[in-house]
């Protein structure tokens, strides 16, 4: 099961404080806290994009994914299609 919740900075501050991680300032705009729960029998495996290491530059990331991305116009045209 995957769940996503949205919260205000005060809520994020409270979660950080409850875990002893609050740093006495408001979290920056669009801050995120991620909780990933894994079973011990399934060890995580780190995946790498071709031509990128773990700290892939955003420009390189966009260039690598360019062949499979669509423009906003293309996306909107595809979403207007009626099937059936």
Give a quick rundown of the structure.
The chain contains three helices and no strands.
Structural account:
This protein has helices at residues 9-18, 58-65, 72-80. The protein is mainly α and 84 residues long. The protein has one domain (9-38, 49-80). It is extended. The mean pLDDT is 77.
Produce the secondary structure layout.
Elements: H1 9-18, H2 58-65, H3 72-80
Uncertain spans: none
Task: Name the beta content range.
Answer: under 5%
Instruction: Estimate the mean pLDDT confidence.
Output: 77
Biggest pleated sheet? none
Can you tell me the number of structural domains?
Answer: 1
The overall strand count is 0
- The number of helical segments is 3
Instruction: Compute the CA-based radius of gyration.
Output: 19 Å
Classify the helix fraction into a percent range. Answer: 25-40%
Span of the ends, CA to CA = 32 Å
Order of helices and strands: HHH
Rough outline: extended
Keywords, please?
phosphatase activity, single chain, 3 helices, 84 residues, mainly alpha
């Amino acid at each position: 099961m995957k769940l996503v919740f949205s919260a205000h900075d005060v809520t994020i501050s409270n979660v950080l404080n409850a875990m002893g991680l609050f740093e006495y300032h408001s979290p920056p705009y669009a801050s995120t806290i991620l909780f990933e729960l894994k079973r011990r029998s399934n060890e995580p495996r780190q995946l790498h994009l071709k031509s990128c290491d773990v700290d892939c530059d955003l420009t390189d990331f966009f260039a690598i994914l360019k062949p499979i991305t669509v423009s906003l116009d293309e996306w909107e045209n595809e979403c207007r299609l009626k099937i059936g």
